[in-house]
Amino acid sequence: MAQSRIDIGRLHGGELVAGVASVVLVIGVFLPWFRFGSRATGYFSFSAPALRTWMYLPCVISIGVVGCVVMNAMWRRRRTPLRYWPVLYWTALVGACSVNVVLTVGCFVKKAQGLSWDVGAYLSLVAAAVAVVGAAGGAVAGALAGRHGRHGRHGRVGRVGRVR
After folding, report:
1. Measuring CA to CA, how many Å separate 22 from each of 69, 81, 96?
2. Cβ proximity of 69 and 3 under 8 Å
3. Rounded to two decimals, what is the model's pTM?
4. Angstrom distance (rounded) from CA 68 to CA 10
5. DSSP label at 54?
6. 24-61 residue pLDDT tens
7. Hey, where are the domains in the chain?
8. Strand partners, 117
């Protein structure tokens, strides 16, 4: 049985950014999001899923994004019978990250009166935005590289000037 290795060099920079930001989003969802109280009574904080159970959905989506990025790093580049596979991959990656942004912004904006935001809210909001920007940037870079091949218009040039 052949071993599969993760080769980060196979990934676009946008994929790496989307994967790392998705991991940060999962961590940020479970950090304290909301805080209430006063100096006299003390402050109490709680995470987003404690108030809004639908905030587990960005965690599941983010784990799926990380799984797709890892699978793409392990996948050997062969000729595939699916002509539109890169288009489907990038569409799914950008779409999943966009759904995470919508859900995170929705939870951020839908704050009950008397509550204030805590560190998890800010971290999750930034991570979701960075993930979608990274995925969209990777999609654009992938589309441009797909037009002329991964190594540009002239291909990869070997030591003796031959195109490999």
Report:
1. 11, 30, 10
2. no
3. 0.76
4. 13
5. G
6. 999 998 888 888 877 777 777 777 777 778 888 999 99
7. 8-148
8. 34
